[in-house]
Amino acid sequence: MSRQVTSRWELTGVLVAQAAVHIGGLDAGPAQLVQARDGAGRPLLPGTALAGVIRSALRGAGNPDSALWGLPSDSDGDGGQASWVRIDDAPALDSPHVEVRDHVSIDRFHGAAAKGHLFSREVLAAGTRFAFRMVVDAPADGDAAAARTLVEAVAAQLRGPGIGVGAATTRGLGLVRLTDAVLRKSDLATRAGMLAALRTGGEPVDLPTADPDQVPAGVLRIVVPWRPHGPLAVQVSSDGDVVSAFPLTGRNKAGIHLELPGSSIKGVLRSHAERITRTVTGKSASEDFLDQMRADGLGSVAALFGTAAARDSSDRDLPTGRRGALQVATCISRATLPAAQWDAVRLLQQRLGDSAGGGGGAETGKKPDNRRSRRPKKHPQAAGSTTNAASMDGAEQEVDVHRAALGRLQLAVDELNRGVKGIKFMIAHHVAVDRWTGGAADALLFATLEPHATDDKAGKADKAWHPITLDLRVNELGPAPSEPGTESEQDGQFAPPPEQLAALALLLLVLRDLCDGWLGFGHGTTRGAGGVRVDADQVCFTAGSMTGWFSCLDGRSLAQVLADQELTESLTTAWLATAEGAQV
User: Fold this and answer.
1) Is 450 helix (H, G, I), strand (E, B) or coil?
2) Which of 43, 294, 381, 545 is the most exposed place for a label (fewest CB within 10 A)?
3) What is the pLDDT of residue 130?
4) CB atoms within 10 A of CB 449
5) Phi, psi dihedral angles at 246 (to 5 degrees)
6) What is the 3-state secondary structure (H, E, C) of 38-91?
7) What is the average per-residue pLDDT within 220-233?
């Protein structure tokens, strides 16, 4: 049955990924979790996914749930209404850069990688562009202004703070924003309006300006400037034998940069929050990893970081999973790496056999070293001497080839360093020590490429990386009060439930310990790498609209918040009450 439409609003533009994006597709590809693609093999953002997250984002921003989204039917199957909003699939434009990233979970009981939790995921790199189209029809028997209100609210959300789509949106993936937005209106109530719509596609309508740095409604944003103390990187293993690991990098429209994934940052923060809570409550970690992720008895840890679903999903009496209220963005370096020099470094990473086959002398223009041919000949009566000599020559030749390969790689790294400001790369050599002999363990000499932040003219190294950004969705911390409670002294706001205060208190404890140097990120944090320095005076809180009592933190630094005795006492009381047995 056809429906009468008086006007049509069409919003088009380009969705640009601000971070890597993953939406799951068929389980067949180079990774366990592959990217969704259309019939032509193009990566895409499905319209169903976009519609769901857009509707949820509008609801979170305080916009009423418009009937234009459709109405569900009653229990008898009557009374439903189809949606008046259509959102097309958004295929990737051009040829997007697809990366495969490995992930691992850390077992809290053993402190090592959790068994069976190593997996890989296909992601589309930051900067990937998607074609976006949304159409909203105004029904003849409805409010004509409602369609315009809805489409303008969608445009404001997409062009401003953006939306998180796909997997792991609380761990740094999936943020997209709309650029080159065009809004058109078509009058379908008259013959002249229909003809004009067919000729021109509709009349352009001006859109208000949008601020991409706007803090979303209901969000308390925490910006943490930091600087590395020593080498810091999330390492990616390499197939070659010259260097065993390289730092993780990402790509966007600005170029190649070092990357500290939101999943790594959030994992470190969660582990420390669990450590604090277990110290206070005396609860030990379960040996089963999924039971650890359920955060049973850990109170505010579940509210901040989420919980795992029960393993037997068919039993409805078992708890379901819960998404955490804390969202951690992926942190990237300010310095960009020259693509040609970085690719040269990676291409030189090859197996020793390839290096030997290439011949060091041919590449450098020098004659090959013939010192071994000038060695004295072995006595013909020495049994087995020929075999031993050949074995020794082969080992020495392998060492020479490895040394030559490292030399060529060092030249490429030096060339890379000349094109990068704020970060210096170094080849670090490591060896494992044999506990029996006390000497170097056989075949365990290896090298890694390590990035070091360099000081600027003012003697500071805090310009190498962008700040860490934490978004706390305060309305998801716990149940909203059904009626006003005790009124606080800040701006006449009512105090939130104790569960929300307890979660904020735990987060402040984690941030305080981060400033005190207790936490590190990336590889080798127990072996001198990954250390960070954070100044509590520079950690800043910014509250978006609809944050209620939490707006009292707006514009304050972490040092100022921790120095507020009245505030910290109320937070500590709420957190201790929750940690001693209350469930969030």
Assistant:
1) strand
2) 381
3) 96
4) 24
5) -120, 155
6) CCCCCEEECHHHHHHHHHHHHHHCCCCCCHHHCECCCCCCCCCECCCEEECCEE
7) 94
429 DSSP β-pair partners: 447
In which element (H, E) is residue 100 found?
A: strand 98-106
With beta carbons less than 8 A apart as the criterion, state whether 297 and 377 touch.
no
At 25, the amino acid letter reads: G
Q: In angstroms, rounded to a whole number, what is the distance separating the alpha carbons of residues 534 and 225?
A: 7
Type of residue at 268: V
Stated as kind and residue range, the H or E segment containing 400 is: helix 385-418
3-state secondary structure 531-556: EEECCCCCCEEEECCCCHHHHHHCCC
Q: What is the CA radius of gyration of the chain?
A: 29
Q: Residue count of the chain, please give it.
A: 584
Reduced to 3 states, what is the DSSP secondary structure of residue 561?
helix
pLDDT classification of 391: cutoffs 50, 70, 90: low
Collapse the DSSP code of 469 into the 3-class scheme (helix H, G, I; strand E, B; otherwise coil) and give the result: strand
Residue 227 to residue 515: CA distance in whole angstroms: 11
Vertex 172 angle, CA 169 and 175, to 5°: 65
Q: Which residue has the tokens 């390839």?
A: 354
pTM: 0.84
**CA 19, 21, 24 angle in degrees (round to 5)?**
165
* Per-residue pLDDT reduced to its tens digit, 332-343: 999 899 988 988
What is the token pair recorded at 287?
Answer: 């040996």
Secondary element (H or E) of residue 120: strand 113-124
CB 113 within 8 A of CB 104: yes
Which structure tokens are listed for 240? 């070659």
Per-residue exposure over 244-271, b if at least 16 CB sit within 10 Å of its own CB, e if not: bbbbbbbbbeeebbbbbbbbbbbbbbbe
In this predicted structure, which of 77-86, 229-238, 330-339, 359-368 has the lowest mean pLDDT?
A: 359-368
Pick from 573, 541, 576, 574: nearest CA to 560: 541
Q: Which CA distances in Å does 562 have to 40, 76, 180, 203, 571?
A: 55, 56, 43, 54, 11
375 and 386 Cβ atoms separated by less than 8 Å? no
Cβ atoms 172, 263 nearer than 8 A: yes
Q: Which two tokens stand for residue 359?
A: 């011949």
* Integer Cα distance of 238 and 505 in angstroms: 41
Both tokens assigned to 328? 């951690």
Tokens of 14: 């380009």
